Amino acid sequence: MTGPPTKHSGTMPGWRQRFIEELGGLALEPGTPRPGVRVLGWLVVSVPPQQSAQQIQAELTLSAGSVSAAVRMLADDGMIERVAHPGDRHTYYRLRRGGWERAMAAHFRTLVQVREIADRALEARGAEADHRLGEMKDTYAWFGARIAELLVDTNDIVASGERSLQTQRNMVS
Fold first, then answer.
1. How do strand 91-95 and strand 80-84 relate by DSSP bridges?
2. What is the CATH number assigned to the segment(s) 99-172?
3. Residues of 38-48 as b/e, b for ≥16 C-beta within 10 angstroms?
């Protein structure tokens, strides 16, 4: 790295804006604050890829508090990392390598937890529960098993370094 990234012009091309707003509208995970998803979206398409909190705030017209909370949440989740440059007092943020896999693994843990809760309820239910609880457990178990396989495959591909994940995806499709 030769130094801090250059400043962005402050006028975001339309496709970037649409991407960020559409992603933010999804609120990727129930309870995820929209500014956090918008910051993530911006870091996916920003030029340069490293952005200071001030740059993020200016591009997305978010408050300093919203940006601070968003980058803290995304860093805690392993999606982004902090970057410092010698002689520059700003902290920059960028997507972390493997961040998408970390996010999928977190979602997988939630699937496992839901299945475990359903298992415990099935054990404790006696004759009170009907088919719905069993269907819930079976559905989460089925998807959990498939996602676990995908995560193992993804981690193997990324760790091997022989082929990019995109190359592997293209070979399958």
1. antiparallel
2. 1.10.287
3. bbbbbbeebee
Domains of the chain by residue range: 14-95, 99-172
Domains 14-95 and 99-172 are alike in CATH topology:
no
Report the distance separating Cα 22 and Cα 161, nearest Å.
32
Whether residue 46 contacts residue 8, with contact meaning beta carbons closer than 8 Å, is answered with yes
Assigned architecture for domain 14-95:
Orthogonal Bundle (1.10)
- Tokens 């676990």 correspond to 148
pLDDT at 22: 83
Kindly list the averaged pLDDT for each block of 10 residues, start to end, along the chain of length 173. Answer: 46 77 72 88 94 96 97 92 94 92 81 89 78 90 88 77 56 49
At residue 27's C-alpha, the angle toward residues 150 and 140, to 5°, is 40
Give the 3-state secondary structure of residue 51: strand
pTM: 0.68
Quick one: pLDDT at residue 2? Answer: 45
